[in-house]
Amino acid sequence: VPSQSPATSPSSASSFEMLDMESAHAPYQEVQPHWFFCRRADDNTSWLPFSREDSDKLENAFTNTVEGQRYDVHVKERKRYAVYWEQAPSEVRRCTWFYKGDKDTRFMPYPEDFSKDLEEAYRKSVTSDEWKKKLDFPTGETVILHNPKLIMQYQPIGLQDDWVSSPSEHTRPRTVKRGVDNISVEIPDGEPEKVDHVVFMVHGIGPACDLRFRSIIQCVNDFRSVSLSLLASHYKRAQQEGQVGRVEFLPVNWHSALHGDATGVDEDIQRITLPSISRLRHFTNDTLLDLFFYNSPTYCQTIVDTVASEFNRLHVLFKQRHPEFSGTVSVVGHSLGSLILFDLLTNQRDESQARQGISGEPCHLNCNTLEQTLNRLGLQQYLDVLQNENLDLESLALCRDSDLKDLGIPLGPRKKILNYVRRKWLPESSGLPPQQFHLHRPQSVTSAVDYEYFDVGIGQVSIDYPQLEFHPQTFFAFGSPIGMFLTVRGLKRIDPNYTFPTCKSFYNIYHPYDPVAYRIEPMIVSEVDLEPMLIPHHKGRKRMHLELKDSLTRMSMDLKNNVLGSLRTAWQSFARLPVAALPPGEGGETTTEKTLEETVSKSKEPPLVEEREHREIKMGMLNGGRRIDYVLQEKPIESFNEYLFAIQSHLCYWESEDTALLLLKEIYDNLGVAIEQPQQ
């Protein structure tokens, strides 16, 4: 218990005694507590506040679930536990008094027992109206209550403490504040309880997801925070009317399962790793080798099983904690994670296939002849070869790969024929009820890819692909190498009619300088050179340097197409702004639209017509006929040196407002809720 005695203010605080005259006597009111949790990162320890809603819940013991039910707090233990992912429990504290040193960036909460002693001394000073009280604590600290607005703590010389960074700071006082409302701390807004949609996010290579070497958990937390802010600004009215709640984003971690003790691969790799340039080799082993692991049947199976089982586990757990949830689920894959999802989704079975597997009824071929089947597969050149061996469809279904190889049929057509015939002829030996599909794999063929839609097989590693217990609404790929991998695997074209069996929407989102990202649309529509769709800036218009660049491009085109009127039309082109940024003219027609019509009527090859033709081009069924490739707008500083920002561009998606807004727009468009343009 600290001792209390009147004290003369130290010289360092004498200048503050004038504040005594300003301190009016006010009745004592008990301090209002606020709950904080501790975050430890490397050697840094910080205390972060819960939202006011969560703090009130903990204070009144209404519930122990906080932060959108992603954490449980054991109040008696003063511990906070993660629900959906593995994370060491963190300390929580009921905070009333705070301190900050000269070089501290934020106030830190005192331990609860220390705060109780400070509060009792403060209460006595207020009720007796006696100040300049000195409190000596057994640990050596001295706190002096000069007046209600000036309370300081002094560290005795020679006492070592974590907050002291140099000997000269031993005598520097700490500023002491009472109550969370008197300190500069940003208390987060509470999250809406209603969840409209769930998004599972899969990381790429390595344990770190950004340049700050943060985990997938931390990066998804950032993305969730960005989405909550955008919902408040771009769906404000819908939130106020109760149409919109929030979107939950949950991380899916497969790296720890691959590199953990279960596989022992890290130990095996370490034995053959050279001792030189150890840091670079460690980075290679821990990060870049994931690409090679995914192309190994053994470790690819581990990766795919982990992702699928995590999807199913998280889906079940979320529904248990949110029994009222009736929404749908989407998936996001970053970098290699997007390729994992692509391979996984191409090997899912739709409801009709699942019913056939459960009933055990054979899926017989229809009345198509062998000739019709080969024509459908684009392999009519092999009709004579098969007929010379008296093969019909029934006998062809009994052939093995080696049989067709002996007939001189190449590998690609062999796989194409066998997969198609077996899928149409042989029953799938599942017989399992739907609830046991956790990691069930069809045993008739390794891959369930529909070869009707691909020129050749898509070259997936020969493994057994597990089934998901839900059908994703949309698949979003961030900085994805899918197009490159498909091309390297030998796939030249994706049939426009192809779609994922259980997922009907697909977006390929990338930064223009991302060195890992590749396009998808040219593999579907190769006859037209289409620019990707430009993702709008979240504030409603293009970045200024891109507007200037477009204006200069239009000016150059006008000079070329209309030499006689170049001066007039070029100036109109340069002064032109995006339609959404200009007020409508008479009759609802904007000035920009008039100028565009005039320019089009006078130019021989109007660019507007080309744009209209581009919009009318069907992009296949992979995204329901809509565009697939979406490119972010680079920042002005990034345009100065695209090589310098290349790596950062591949890791930018987790904090990108434009990316998050595109996801929210797709999700809420499907729910019939329109986006609102925020007030500037």
TrEMBL record:
| UniProt cross-references to InterPro entries, sorted A to Z | DDHD_dom, PA-PLA1, SAM, SAM/pointed_sf, WWE_dom, WWE_SEC23-DDH2
Q: Which domain of life is it from?
A: Eukaryota
- State any single GO MF term: metal ion binding
Disordered: annotated span: 582-607
Q: Which GO terms describe its cellular component?
A: COPII-coated ER to Golgi transport vesicle
Biased composition, Basic and acidic residues: where in the chain? 591-607
Q: Provide the DDHD domain boundaries.
A: 468-669
The protein in question is named DDHD domain-containing protein
Classification lineage: Eukaryota, Metazoa, Chordata, Craniata, Vertebrata
